[in-house]
Structure formats: structure tokens, C-alpha cells
Design a protein that fits this description.
2 copies of one chain form a homodimer.
Chain A (H helix, E strand, L loop, with lengths): L1 H20 L6 H12 L6 H10 L6 H13 L3 E4 L7 E4 L7 E5 L5 E4 L2 H14 L1 E14 H6 L9
Parallel strand pairs in A: 3-5
Antiparallel strand pairs in A: 1-2, 3-4
The first copy, chain A, binds a DNA duplex (25 and 25 nucleotides) through α2 and α4.
Chain lengths: ~160, ~160
Amino acid sequence: MLQATNVQESVKKIFTEYLEKKSHRKTDERYNILEEVYNLDDHFDVESLFLHMKSKGHSISRATIYNTIELLLDCQLLTRHQFGKNTARFERSFSFRQHDHLICQDCEHVFEFCDPRIQQIQSMMGEILNFKITNHSLNLFGKCRELEEKGSCKHRKTA
Amino acid sequence: MLQATNVQESVKKIFTEYLEKKSHRKTDERYNILEEVYNLDDHFDVESLFLHMKSKGHSISRATIYNTIELLLDCQLLTRHQFGKNTARFERSFSFRQHDHLICQDCEHVFEFCDPRIQQIQSMMGEILNFKITNHSLNLFGKCRELEEKGSCKHRKTA
DNA sequence: GTTTGTGCAAATTTTTTGCATTACA
DNA sequence: TGTAATGCAAAAAATTTGCACAAAC
């Protein structure tokens, strides 16, 4: 929990510096959203974050969430993903080491993994194709063992 | 052109076999969409395919395009991508070797590349995490040389 | 002749925008 | 106090669905 608190403090400090540098106002809503984003363990979409915050008693609007997410993306505290569905999904990105995703086609559960060769591919391709590559996303899609063996998997939400 | 014709003939045959196996009807619209998809050199979204077909004199509806795309995805003649925007983009996938994408953040132009290490990562991660991986998508995002040097790039469509 | 597929329009879903009000600086 | 940010609702964008009609089989 100490570690978690430090993360909260660190990202709050980073966000504050960013807001000051950009002359954006330091509103409660922005800090509330930041805090909730860093409380969530998993990837989330705007609607679920909205409902989550509503259920915790925050009075917040979707528009503010969309606006604040833009800021968090801009200062690299958040990463945006699109795992094949129409809804964008987000993930906190401070103090969580670079990783990629493995998505179960059935239950859509997201697993994470890390492989140094991706960085190598990234820098080599940047050189060859004369690109200044800033980031990448590698998604592997497949069926988890449970699904293969039993025909369904535990993370599945809808029948 | 001979090669192109062969591709058209091949995909038509594959599609026909698929439709017959699944007991789906062989409609003109479905074959028209397949042909246009394989005429397009670049990645496309539903709206641009719709407008393209309209401009060529086809009377077609968006609903039919969405439906047919589902079939083409199912028989692997088409691949779906989501390059960070809300709109899904598609790409013909028969006789075009496996590749990944490098996307310019500015003009959104898509470049293609190939690296065998990705397949290695894919199979290794499948073993380690006990996943039956069926496919992957690796996208590198960055700035093309022109953009870096001149502040803008030729593929850019909108100011 | 059945029944699936098409086209159109309406409905959903996800995101963006306009505007009156609130509150940061 | 001036102006940016919020909340709400309406608009826009992307996709899905319902239904009458057309056309495969």
C-alpha cells in the first residue's frame, strides 16, 4: 500500500507540473479522474470509468472524462488502446513497465507480457524506414487454455 | 495485370467455396464488394468503400457492406485493423504476405514492414502463457522523415 | 414458392460539440 | 473579475438492427 500511495503521489505531482506548464487549471475533477484511473487495476473504457465514478459518489460528466483523458494521454500518464472493438480502452502508464497484450478472443480478457525483441524491431525499423518511432502496440489474439480445453473461460462476462 | 487477374480469380473461387460451405447465397453485391476490395491498393474504411462503389455506379448500401465484410473476415480474405482512430480499417489478405504496420502520427499514412522475430515472439508467448494464438497486430507509430525535417508530410490529407 | 439477402431508415453506441453556469487564478 | 472548465444535452460519427421488398435457390 505504501508503494501504491507513492504512485498516487507521484502521478499527482507529474500531472500538476504538466497542468502548470500548459497553463491549465487544477480542478478537482481532473485530480479525481487521475486518482480513479490509478486505482483501477485493469484496462477500462470511458463508460465504465464514468459509471465507476458515479457509483463512488462523484458528480462528473462524460465530457469532462473525455477532456481529462486527452490531458492524461498528452502527459503520458495514460495509454490508449483499441483491441479490435469499437470502444477505446485506456490504461495507466506511470511506473508500470512497458509491456504488450495478449487478448482472449472469447472473453476479451487482457493478459500482459514483455519481450525485449520488440524494442529491437522498433529501433531497427525506425532506422530502415527513416521513421522517428515514438511508440508501438503489439497485440496477440488467441484462445486461452481454458477456452481450448473446456470450450469456455472464466473471465468471460457475457454468455 | 495477369497476376492481378489471377488474384481476382483466386479470391472469387475461395469466396464461392466459402459461401457454398456455409450455405450463403451468391449475390452480385457480395462479388462486387469482393472485387472492389481487391482493386483497392490501400487500407480502407467502410465509408470510403461505400463512396468508392457509389462513384463507380454500383447501387449498394452500407448495411450490405458491413454484412459482406463480416463474411470476408470470416473466410480470411480480409483483415480488420484499428490504428488508434475510432474507425475500423480493412485490408485484403489473400496472396499478400504477412506484414505489420508503421503509421505516421501526422498524416496517418500506413507503411508496411516484415520482421521474422514477431512470429518467434508470437509462438514463444503462446507456449509460455498457454495460449493458442491465432493472429497478431504490431503497429509502430511515429513521424516520417519528411515530417521530422519539414514539419509536414506529403501524404497528409487535411491541413 | 421459400427463405435469405438487400436497401433504406431508424436505433444504438461511442465520441464530440455548443452553451449556460461554475469556479480557478 | 475574466476566462477556462464543467455539466448537460444535442449533434456527429460509426455501427447495428428491423422490416418490406427483391432475388437466390
